Amino acid sequence: MSLIHKSKSLARMMLALLTQPRLRAAYLDMTDALYGQADTDQRLLTQWPPVLRGYRYAQAWQPALAEATSPPRAAVGTTRQPGRLRSYFDAHTEGKGIWKWNHYFDIYERHFNRFVGREVHVLEIGIYSGGSLEMWRDYFGPGCHVYGVDIQAACKAYENDYTRIFIGDKGSRAFWRTLVQDIPKIDVLIDDGGHEPEQQIVTLEEMLPHMAPGGVYLCEDIHGMQHGFASYLYGLVCNLNETLGNGLDGVRTMPFQSWIKSIDFYPYVAVLEMAELPEPRFIAPKHGTQWQPFL
Question: Which CATH number fits domain 84-282: 3.60.15.10, 3.40.50.300, 3.40.50.150, 3.40.190.10?
């Protein structure tokens, strides 16, 4: 990068920092998560331009307008039917309370469907009025073992033959380290408890190692553009793209890459999926006999 280019990039960055406080907070959270306090000048120069570019693109983006003559979507058979979880929620008008954003149900179905009808261990953090504990049992089936965590002692009342309740502070590492000694590996974890970034980070750091192979870790209610937990997750994403050597036998994976199959972002939700088996190397074989000479 030339000195002139660097100067222009720095000028654009400083202008945006001064005029867009929300963007400034979001960016500083993200870069702290990625790089800590080291190499401040370099990280600003190299990381800020694409962050600013993406932010501006998303702020200004508009979908292509449909043709005026196009029929309504319902007329061409594209209306979607609600899944089982959404149908359960819509029909649940009495009894123990359930409080969820409507768009969460498609996310649940996408990531949880493969566990239906199996023996599955489900941990939900944040019980509130207990209705979602019953919803998970209904969805996954009689092989579902439910574990609930809440800071309110009154939630102990929701314990039954297939549900165990633990009372504790999700921001306490000591609480999680005691809990994991009393429960099996978790297949599905839903973090709907305290929504402060530090609480969510501590919970992930303590519970991700306790997920079963093939498990799904879902965190809800990541609200706000400058949310610190989202910034923390950006740091995790960077490690998915790490390359440790590159030879004929492929790229050796770091432990995080080896076990974390994907990190998915949705409005207010992030999902980490575990691999069924660790991937020791990423290999890109060539197949075929005819190749262009330029590579």
Answer: 3.40.50.150
Beta-ladder partners of 37? none
Q: Which helix (H) or strand (E) holds 247?
A: strand 244-247
Q: Under a CB-based contact definition with an 8 Å cutoff, are residues 151 and 128 in contact?
A: no
Q: CA distances (Å), 126 to each of 11, 69, 133, 144, in order? A: 45, 48, 10, 18
Tell me the residue type at 270. A
* The model's pTM: 0.81
CATH 3.40.50.150 in the chain: give the residue spans: 84-282
Residue 234 has pLDDT above 70, yes or no: yes
**pLDDT 10s digits, 109-126:** 999 999 999 999 999 999
Condensed to tens digits (0 to 9), the pLDDT of residues 137-162 reads 999 999 999 999 999 999 999 999 99
Angle at 272 between CA 266 and CA 276, to 5 degrees: 140
Cβ atoms within 10 A of the Cβ of 45, count? 17
Q: What letter represents residue 75's amino acid?
A: A
Distance CA(99)–CA(154), nearest Å, equals 18
Chain-wide mean pLDDT for the chain? 85
The three-point CA angle 235-238-243 to 5° equals 145
Give the residue from 274, 234, 238 showing the smallest Cα distance to 258.
Answer: 274
